[in-house]
Amino acid sequence: MIRWGVSQVAVRVQWEAACWATSGATRPLIDSGNLTRMGEGSISPAGIVAAVLMLAMFAFLSKLYGRDLWRDEAKLFRYDAVPSWWVWGDATWHAYVRPLLFGSVGFVVVILVGLFLEFGPSWLVDGEWFTVLLAVVSFGWLGGMVTIALFNRPKSFVAPPLRGKPGLLRELWNSRSRPTSTM
């Protein structure tokens, strides 16, 4: 859950993840342009274990399925084989599958950055430049996923068999019904 609070002193963005098994002692905040740590302690051991397990799971899955996804030979997430449980149509399935690899790599980077923020040296992490760099990387990752899904661009981050396919917007535009003239 993200809470936005605006005051005269600072704008704070507080991120609370109910699904994480943390003690709540540490939550990243953006306060006056500096990334600060709340509370006295650090992340609970359960939170560290959860982050490391997620990293291990994504590393295992990327080793297992990454090459197949890049070649469009995966059995689970085939581009052309829309599963029967997917109710939103072929075009949205294609838009979902295209940025999977880019999104999973970005997710691993976000977890690594979160662990670095917790355990990194304070002289390196507490500066304004690191906050700006983190924001640019995060928005670039999200923007990359959106542009891959909507426009199938940039081509270098799309699997080679899918580079010639249209993006979601072009697919929806081409599939719309057009009136035919009767004259």
Structure write-up:
By secondary structure, this protein is of the alpha+beta class. It has one domain (45-175). The chain has 6 helices and 4 strands, in the order E-E-E-E-H-H-H-H-H-H. The protein has helices at 45-71, 90-97, 100-119, 122-125, 128-151, 168-175; strands spanning 2-6, 11-15, 28-31, 34-37. The chain is elongated and about 75 Å long. The N and C termini lie far apart (57 Å).
Residue stretches low in confidence (pLDDT < 50, at least 5 long) are 1-40
Supply Rg.
Answer: 21 Å
Strand content: 5-15%
Q: Structurally, how many domains make up the residues?
A: 1
Based on CA inertia axes, which overall geometry fits?
elongated
Task: Give the topology, please.
Layout: E1 2-6, E2 11-15, E3 28-31, E4 34-37, H1 45-71, H2 90-97, H3 100-119, H4 122-125, H5 128-151, H6 168-175
Helix pairs in contact: 1-3, 3-5
Q: In summary, what is this structure?
A:
This protein has one domain. Strands 1-2-3-4 form a 4-stranded antiparallel sheet, with helices on one face.
Descriptive keywords:
alpha+beta; four-stranded antiparallel β-sheet; 183 residues
